[in-house]
Amino acid sequence: MSNYFNNRHIGSWLLISLILVLLITSTAFAANDPNGSATLKQDPNSAVNYIWVLICGAMVIFMMTGFAMVETGFTRARHANNTMMMNLMVWAVGGLAFYFIGFGLMFGGVGGMFGSLDKLLTIKMFGHSWGLLGAKGFGLGNSVYDVSIFLLFFFQVGFLDTALTIPSGAMAERIKFSTYLVYTFIAGAFIYPLFGNWVWGGGWLSQLGQIGLGQGFKDFAGSSAVHAVGGTMALASAIVLGPRIGKYIKGKPVAIPGHDLGMGVLGTMLLIFCWFGFNCGSTFAATDLRFTVVAVNTLLAGCVGGMAAMIYMCFSSGKPDTSMSCNGILAGLVAITAPCAYVPTWAAVLIGGIAGILVCYSVYFVENRLKIDDPVGAVSVHGVNGLWGTIALGLFADGTYGNVKGLFFGGGFGQLGAQLIGALTLIIVIFSLSYLLFKLLDRTIGMRVSAEEELTGLDVPVHGAVCYPEFSISSSLSITTNNTTIPNSITIEKSKN
Amino acid sequence: MSNYFNNRHIGSWLLISLILVLLITSTAFAANDPNGSATLKQDPNSAVNYIWVLICGAMVIFMMTGFAMVETGFTRARHANNTMMMNLMVWAVGGLAFYFIGFGLMFGGVGGMFGSLDKLLTIKMFGHSWGLLGAKGFGLGNSVYDVSIFLLFFFQVGFLDTALTIPSGAMAERIKFSTYLVYTFIAGAFIYPLFGNWVWGGGWLSQLGQIGLGQGFKDFAGSSAVHAVGGTMALASAIVLGPRIGKYIKGKPVAIPGHDLGMGVLGTMLLIFCWFGFNCGSTFAATDLRFTVVAVNTLLAGCVGGMAAMIYMCFSSGKPDTSMSCNGILAGLVAITAPCAYVPTWAAVLIGGIAGILVCYSVYFVENRLKIDDPVGAVSVHGVNGLWGTIALGLFADGTYGNVKGLFFGGGFGQLGAQLIGALTLIIVIFSLSYLLFKLLDRTIGMRVSAEEELTGLDVPVHGAVCYPEFSISSSLSITTNNTTIPNSITIEKSKN
Amino acid sequence: MSNYFNNRHIGSWLLISLILVLLITSTAFAANDPNGSATLKQDPNSAVNYIWVLICGAMVIFMMTGFAMVETGFTRARHANNTMMMNLMVWAVGGLAFYFIGFGLMFGGVGGMFGSLDKLLTIKMFGHSWGLLGAKGFGLGNSVYDVSIFLLFFFQVGFLDTALTIPSGAMAERIKFSTYLVYTFIAGAFIYPLFGNWVWGGGWLSQLGQIGLGQGFKDFAGSSAVHAVGGTMALASAIVLGPRIGKYIKGKPVAIPGHDLGMGVLGTMLLIFCWFGFNCGSTFAATDLRFTVVAVNTLLAGCVGGMAAMIYMCFSSGKPDTSMSCNGILAGLVAITAPCAYVPTWAAVLIGGIAGILVCYSVYFVENRLKIDDPVGAVSVHGVNGLWGTIALGLFADGTYGNVKGLFFGGGFGQLGAQLIGALTLIIVIFSLSYLLFKLLDRTIGMRVSAEEELTGLDVPVHGAVCYPEFSISSSLSITTNNTTIPNSITIEKSKN
Amino acid sequence: MKKIEAYLRPNCIGDVINSLHEIGIEGISLTEIKGYGQQKGHVEHYRGAEYTINLLPKIKIELFIKDTQVSSAIKAITKAAQTGEIGDGKIFISPVEEGIRIRTGETGETVI
Amino acid sequence: MKKIEAYLRPNCIGDVINSLHEIGIEGISLTEIKGYGQQKGHVEHYRGAEYTINLLPKIKIELFIKDTQVSSAIKAITKAAQTGEIGDGKIFISPVEEGIRIRTGETGETVI
Amino acid sequence: MKKIEAYLRPNCIGDVINSLHEIGIEGISLTEIKGYGQQKGHVEHYRGAEYTINLLPKIKIELFIKDTQVSSAIKAITKAAQTGEIGDGKIFISPVEEGIRIRTGETGETVI
Ligand SMILES: Nc1ncnc2c1ncn2[C@@H]1O[C@H](COP(=O)(O)OP(=O)(O)O)[C@@H](O)[C@H]1O
Ligand SMILES: Nc1ncnc2c1ncn2[C@@H]1O[C@H](COP(=O)(O)OP(=O)(O)O)[C@@H](O)[C@H]1O
Ligand SMILES: Nc1ncnc2c1ncn2[C@@H]1O[C@H](COP(=O)(O)OP(=O)(O)O)[C@@H](O)[C@H]1O
């Protein structure tokens, strides 16, 4: 209005505006609802929906306790303090990575009720627009100071934490603590959100329905986006790190029993409990009563997975192995996580049963054929069965929910195709990225602790205190090893202590 | 209509119809609501009601973690892996038994909103019809593919798991693992659902109001149907199994301290938490605000139970015994489980206090008089106090809820009579059936492990690995035994290792 | 009406009336709603609100499990049974103290929907009436037999338990068990409710708005009323008790590592989970969607607190200390507990970060400067950071909720003033009362166990059994002490065994 | 004065102590050890991978006794610990030059 | 060269090590043991049932020392470990024929 | 008959057992101990407070062998346990007067 706005200054003004717009993304004037009263008025059901999601979200966060127990219980006492700390700090670091960066990338293209997240970087292909990455919501600034978005953040941060903590099981007993934290931050800020955006953030995989592939790629609660992503990163990390000293003697794998199997069992139980929050909460609404079916399917797949693994172990090695039974239950739960809302109970039984067997075979395969040392079976439980569950959805979805129909229920190859594309994409993208990341870390700050630290146990060198200072621990590796196995590699190291 | 339907074929047709009817029970055409939208429309409160029940149900399932901790903590290290596995696999096997058989038998006579469970086998007596067993819902087939029924299943499966896991405490350290799993399946498929149907499935005990006995047999959350059933099966199992080697020296019981009392305490705490889901969720509706009273009564009975037991132990043996204090809390919780919704707080205090004393006396009685070895006090905690709670309801119900009035609140002997009939029925039916089952198992596949396995510890012979391979465990039985008690029985066995 | 009511008898009648009134508080005629149907009719949202509060309340009670793990894990094995029992029985004794006395004092001036608690002892000052203590609801008698009041009681009892259990960490390894229980009862019946009334029971601190101090003293979920009260009592108890034998050698503090650091980590994780119930549930209504902001702020403050403490320790002593990282997370959670509903996320990050550093410095200060032995850092975590959080609210409240505005958001010094008055009051009143109490207990029944019991471990002398009877425990204090530190004090004691 | 060291099965310790008690031997020290001898370990599986438990838990007892007690002590231990199967363990006797009771400072065979 | 074996109360170990340190003895090995002697166990209750804790936790220290150090070592230990009450423990001295330091392979009294 | 006591680093135990196995020594007993010698402990921090871990975990092995096996046993242990750095540990040899195999009651060097 003032004549100050003349043509000469238009260039400068444009620049300044741009900066202002960027600033504004983190300040006021969007129609946000930071205390929820407007949201509640618009939808009175939001009270029940919000508490539902919040409670389930807390249960998902609680899963870290279960993972910490499983991973620590199934590894050795001399590293227990370190394994615990990894599982604890992954929550802290991962949470902050998600807050500052990851959440914006993953969900910055999804609308909330007020103050929506609506910045999605897209690409045009095949005559359609495809979402690639979000670009709003970093640091939960003023523009997204809205109850709906905070709820989404809270629920999702637990999923992130789960995905990030999975590789810690594969890296246990030999990973540098500082490197682990760096991995956590990068994976939480960039790798996890990338695939997450494609599946849940409105990205291209979720849009595959546009080109006739069923309802687009579906993953109800995260067999792919959470578990398979975690399992694939676990694989990459275990490859880069190499096996623990003494794990392979003359090329033969040596059993390294966990130091507290009971802790592993209790962790599994705790995970079962939390899994009901994980899967059922993924309805994201209490008014979507389908969560009852989700709960029953989750339960059944876990039960059958445990049974199947236990029976398989009885046949393959003669006894009902405790840690593999736990792995079987978890495998069943992982596998049902994607299809839990879409399949009938008999399919859940089938999916869980196959998962239970798959995990046993995969553990054998990874250890004996690939010669990769994955101490707690993270790759087999979360990676292999995450993919299995993702694909199973394309087979068994019965069409009673969201009109998602699998191959066996008249859905043809559309949905299955979408699922396969998603699975393949995941393997390629996540494996490449995480392998690259770990290689890079290895070259720069180093992935692996010294042989001496590894043999003595990470607890004192890394954290200054053993986990169990008063208990008498059999400190010799050899107490329970294969006859020929008194690990010779150790001779070479001639490590101190 | 076609003349094919002539008399000659009528026999064949009848047969075929019968088969068809059976098949139909597991296929389509009932007006089900598998995704819940119709249910929600009919009752908008179902959102809040369903999440309430689902969350409480998950908490009930979580109880297995608490039981695993209590049972393992209060028994010995050399069997810890086995005790844990029993508590884990009871969930898997029990869940499947309930899915395939038990649920149909127990609830196959109860209506859901859509796709109701409505097949109840009944008997006519005293001019009334009495329910005996359900006959619908096996394997949660298509005819019951309905959110209300899935919710019921999910909530109930945790209760079943609780009942089934109770005897594992009484059988700990000497039961064959395979036999244990067989027991779990049979009890989960047939024994538990039988009494369960009579109480909660519309069966005859719940119908006792028909002949003027109060409001019929009442058990709000399972003092009888869950705990007393579990405790009674525990009694039968402990009798059939006999005491652990070294438990009785010259007829005198020897203390066998649990290997991790802290674990037992933590398990008790976890159970307290879950118990609020157990009892409060049994309103089966969020709109029934009486769950507040339930919660407070549950809390108080647990507090007083623990106090009473602790004080009792101070008087009887001089010190506040940890595991008996835990037992006291659990006893209070068990006892209040049936009456929690019906009694005023002062009655909850009384019921809990009596439970705390009862459990101490009962533990003494079972061990010293009956000479039955019940390592963690399952019979006393769940059996005796389950019955006490069942009867207490008939005494203290104050009429402010469901018009249930006990003896002390002007209800006369009607309600009390119903409660007594229920308690008596339970003892007779459940004890006979389970005793028979255990005797049968003993005769056929055998109940008890070999003396050698028992002395060495079940972990390696049964599961191939000890629970704590790196910790130095005092492997001698005698470290903490009565002076004269260095168990002579062992001499006779002369077991190896 | 009868002429019996003449003047002559008026004195007697007044007396009798008084007695009757007192009696009536525990009997009928108020318009109560013991089964909740009237409440539900009046406010249909009460279903969702009530389950929300109830579930969160159960999570708060569950916190005792986390505290038991943190306190036991970070102290020594020889006292583990005792430390566990303290954490268990505080629940029982504290619960009863609150039921019989504390609840009435604290909330006896707050209205419920029906059958309100409305007796508040007040004082007139500055022309306003100020609440001092409630006087209704003792023993939850008939006059308060109402769902809303029972809900309040249930939710609050967990908070009480938390406050009471905090000092057990500071008193661990040397407090007499019986004295501990007496403290629990008195603090639960009188000390905690006093300050609680002033903050949450309608008392004078909450009324400071009357004289223009912001919205009056605010503490959303208990940084002050719960944590700082607990932490201040912890300080008083640790001063009165004195340091553990061997803690100070020639005035220098000696590290006494906890016996199971992993247990402490798991306890911290469990507390994180429960904290979401603690803070979010404090909306006391599901319809107040602000709990989403509460949840995110709680999460962030915990994450940053842990990170900050870990990094601080890396700089100050070279390594990421496990127990201090746990303390850092807890400090962040404690600090955000008061302001969680009022501040933006960046402030939560700041508050948590400062808390994480504060706790490290405070632990150092208490141990090295004050020479007070606080085994698990209760004073620093709960006391110092409870106060920090209380004050932080006065700085960072952004006005988007309840119109509470801090110094940095245009609230001036009003709100901050109220917060400072509250904090000061707390320190003075609670410290004096609890110091007095502990001194009194010390003089009468004695606070401290004998040196012999302390050195041998409290488990056997107090409870008759060690926590880990089968594990081989390094029973010598000296296994991990400073070189010059082989505790000489012990020589003097020359204790047996 | 002699020192007896016996390496025994954990399960027989109670009987051994009773048996020694009967012949008047009251001073004993026990150590949890792992042993390896003719009794071979057994192959087990953990997560499907084979391993041999070849160090078995044993208990070592140490007795310091008078020269005259040696043969009766050996008999007492043997009686209580013998099962006749491999793994029963061994007893060794070695010379001791002196013993001191800390409480009293006394020396010689009376300290036992 | 002699071997000293002392069976001590756990609580006095710190003092004993300090005391030995003062007279120049630096090589020590400690073992957690359970002991049984004149010091009788105590009766406790677990779940109301009686039991006697008659094997008490003790610590055994082993020192290999030069012949000339024997009497000063005994004194040092006694000084630090004596309370005068039953259960203080005992010290035994036995002959050693040879010692080898693994690191250097050297033998004789210098290895100590 | 001799008794060999060796105090070793936990990590080398596997090699030591293998090495002894190769020269035909099959009977071994292992004890977890804490050792203190020339190898000094290290200073660590717990909650910011300094402490020294000066008792290091070691493993003690005991072998009862024939007089003729002594030198080969010493060599076998030394070979497997030597790293050349402080803390490798020590071997001591003492006399044994008699051995008894409990299973058979036999005595003398054949029990080994
Ligand atoms: N030569 C030896 N030196 C040290 N310990 C031995 C020796 N021989 C046997 N032992 C101990 O005795 C235990 C039992 O011996 P073993 O040879 O298995 O059975 P047996 O004595 O019946 O022949 C072993 O586990 C080991 O602890
Ligand atoms: N004859 C013995 N042989 C082996 N160990 C012994 C012997 N006598 C005592 N001990 C050890 O010494 C400890 C203390 O001995 P005890 O007889 O109780 O007290 P005191 O030495 O004061 O008479 C015992 O617990 C045991 O470990
Ligand atoms: N004189 C001794 N008496 C008993 N044990 C000893 C003695 N000297 C060493 N040891 C044991 O041997 C271990 C290693 O000895 P150390 O002196 O540290 O190294 P090095 O043998 O290489 O000189 C010690 O930790 C201790 O257990």
Query: How many β strands of chain D by DSSP?
Result: 7
What's the gyration radius of chain D in Å?
Answer: 17 Å
Bound molecules: adenosine-5'-diphosphate
Write the H/E string of chain A, N to C: HHHHEEHHHEEHHHHHHHHH
Residue windows where pLDDT falls under 50 for at least 5 positions of chain A:
1-7, 21-30, 477-497
**Helix amount of chain D, in percent?**
10-25%
Shape call of chain D: elongated
Largest sheet of chain D: 4 strands, antiparallel
Oligomeric state of the chains in view? heterohexamer
| Main sheet strand line-up of chain D | 2-5-1-6
Q: Return Rg of chain A in Å.
A: 24 Å
Q: Tell me about the biggest sheet of chain A?
A: 2 strands, antiparallel
How are the strands ordered across the major sheet of chain A?
1-2
Q: Roughly what percent helix of chain A? A: 55-70%
Structural class of chain A: mainly alpha
What's the tally of helices of chain D? 2
How much is the average pLDDT of chain A? 88
Number of strands of chain A: 4
- The H/E string of chain D reads EHEEEEHEE
How many H/I helices of chain A? 16
Average pLDDT for all residues of chain D: 91
Description of the molecule:
The complex is a heterohexamer, with three copies of chain A (497 residues) and three copies of chain D (112 residues). With 497 residues, chain A is mainly alpha-helical. Chain A contains 16 helices and four strands. Chain A has helices at 10-24, 37-42, 46-73, 80-107, 147-171, 177-200, 223-241, 261-280, 291-317, 322-337, 345-369, 378-396, 412-443, 451-456, 459-463, 489-493; strands at residues 120-125, 128-134, 248-249, 252-253. Chain A has a two-stranded antiparallel ribbon with strand order 1-2. A two-stranded antiparallel sheet of chain A has the order 3-4. In chain A, a hairpin with a 2-residue loop joins strand 3 (248-249) and strand 4. In chain A, helix 5 (147-171) packs across helix 6, helix 7 runs parallel beside helix 13 (412-443) and helix 11 runs antiparallel to helix 12 (378-396). The longest helix of chain A has 32 residues, at 412-443. Chain D has 112 residues and is α+β, with helices and mostly antiparallel strands. Helix content of chain D is 20%, strand content 42%. Chain D has helices spanning 13-22, 70-81; strands at residues 2-8, 28-36, 42-46, 49-53, 56-65, 89-95, 98-101. In chain D, the strands form two sheets. In chain D, strands 2-5-1-6 form a four-stranded antiparallel sheet, with helices on one face. In chain D, helix 1 (13-22) packs antiparallel against helix 2. The longest helix of chain D has 12 residues, at 70-81. The mean pLDDT of chain D is 91. Classes of the chains: A mainly alpha (497), D alpha+beta (112). Chain C binds chain E through residues 455-456, 460, 464-465, 472-478, 481, 485-488, 490-491, 494-497, and chain E through 9-15, 17-18, 30, 32, 39, 42, 44-46, 53, 56-57, 59, 80, 83, 85, 87. Strand 7 of chain D pairs antiparallel with strand 6 (90-95) of chain E. The structure holds adenosine-5'-diphosphate (3 copies).
